[in-house]
Amino acid sequence: MNKLLGFAGYFAFILCCASSGSAQMTRLNVGYSAVSADQLPAWVAKDSGIFTKNGLEVQLIFFTGGTTAILALVSGDVPLTQVSGPGLVSSSLAGSDSVFVASGMTSLNYVLMGRQGVKTTEHLKGGTLAISRFGSATDSIARFALRNVGLMPGKDVTLVQVGSGPERLNALVAGKVTAAVINPPSSFIAEKRGLAVLADVAKMGLVFQHTGAATTRKYIRERQDTVRRYVKSHMEAVHKMWTDKEATIRALGKNMPGVEREFLEKSYENVMNEALFSKKQYPSLEGLKTVLDEIAERDPRAKSAKPEQFTDSSFIRELDQSGYIDSLYKKR
User: In this structure, is the dihedral angle defined by the CA atoms of residues 323, 325, 329 and 332, taken in order, positive or negative?
Assistant: First the structure.
């Protein structure tokens, strides 16, 4: 009986999605907040026609850093965005109704890299460390990494806002900053140019709700079917990432023009593991607790907040319980 109910739920879900896909296309502006592989779900969904298949005509809009992306979401400039945990949590604590509807990345692949001649973390003292924007993921990562190596952010090392990953890389290569928080492919490019990794955050064992798909509770109430189709597209894009390396690398290259194939391939290999891009894509409550603990050091409201306040997992749960997610990975 349980199996019959499961199959019934699965086919009901498919029929629902098929009917919505055959309706008139829904135009949708979607934000993203970095130029790196953590943005892959939206890039792959756009480049591979997954959004179109699900009845969504999506325009992707770049915002420099999670702080800017979450402001665009809250102001209504975009109804959905890919954004990191610190930006969303800080916004919600300040009164917004923003929530994660899919996890995206739930760990970190960032490193602290020094400019030419800076080889150890001891050389950071009295220097500057480039991040994207204050309140962004790179801000939290910088603070976590500095404390981990015994340095105090703001006292021993000055954090400076520089912009996107490529912009931070350029500042580092030009010697304008002592070090920078960067991730692939920028980190691979920097290594090839002879710059040193000062600290590898991935090896520090941090569970972290990084770049996920987010919207507002208001938009969910008003446009539930649109959010459902978006989350379904997100899930299908993650499946594509796991099963179609060439399509994923093509999406990377299209959105990071000028990056050599070698670095695109290394970026793909770097992120494609269950710790970073899980197949089920539930927002990470443990990762949000990490975010809350870091924010609590400068915002007391975070001390009493619960990770569940910042998520709506109903769309992922619907896909999961219907059997749809499992069915994707059983296909040959």
Answer: positive
Name the CATH code of domain 111-204 (choices 3.40.190.10, 2.40.10.270, 3.30.360.10, 3.10.50.40): 3.40.190.10
Cα 323 from chain centre: 25
Instruction: Tell me the β-bridge partners of 128.
Output: 158
- 2-107+208-330 CATH: 3.40.190.10
Q: Which amino acid is at 17?
A: C
Q: Is 266 exposed, middle or buried (0-12, 13-18, 19+ CB in 10 A)?
A: middle
Helices (H) then strands (E): counts for the chain: 15, 10
Cα dihedral 182, 186, 192, 195, rounded to 10, equals: -30
- Measured CA to CA, the distance from residue 310 to residue 139 in angstroms comes to 20
pLDDT in tens, 273-288: 998 999 999 999 999 9
Q: Facing residues of 62 across strands?
A: 32
Tokens representing residue 59 in the block: 């325009």
In this structure, the number of other CB atoms found within 10 A of the CB of residue 269 comes to: 12
Instruction: Note whether 2-107+208-330 and 111-204 share their fold.
Output: yes
Amino acid 110 reads Y
* Domain layout of the chain by residue ranges: 2-107+208-330, 111-204
Which stretches does DSSP call E strand in 23-118? 26-32, 56-62, 80-83, 98-102, 111-114
300's CB contacts (< 8 A; 6+ apart) are none
pLDDT, one tens digit per residue, over 104-121 is 999 889 999 999 999 999
> What distance in Å separates the CA atoms of residue 108 and residue 86, rounded to the nearest whole number?
13
Residue 189: phi and psi, rounded to 5, are: -65, -40
Q: pTM of the entire structure?
A: 0.85
Residue 138, phi-psi category: left (phi > 0), alpha (psi -120 to 50), beta (remainder): alpha
**What is the reported pLDDT for 4?**
43
